[in-house]
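Subgroup meeting minutes
Present: P.N., E.W., G.H.
Scribe: E.W.

1. P.N. recapped why we're keeping a running log of single-chain structure predictions: easier to compare across weeks, and new members can see raw inputs and outputs side by side.
2. G.H. added today's entry (77 aa).
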Amino acid sequence: MVRCPKCATEVDVDEDEVEEGEILACPECETEMEVVQIHPVKVNAITDDDDEEEEEESEDGDDFEDDDDEEEEEEEV
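Output recorded in log:
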């Protein structure tokens, strides 16, 4: 038995039926969890934060470039 790292729901996992690296899903919040240890079973939530951060950085980078372009135009006038 393990608990979901996001919502703390108990997830019934049998040590003999899972392997390290296996992906499980929480029945309540549908968070994906990776089995990182078998005896006892331990899981880590799989997050998409890395993808979201990369998207935000590229959006921020675009914004900064646009701001610089506007400032340059103002200085030229």
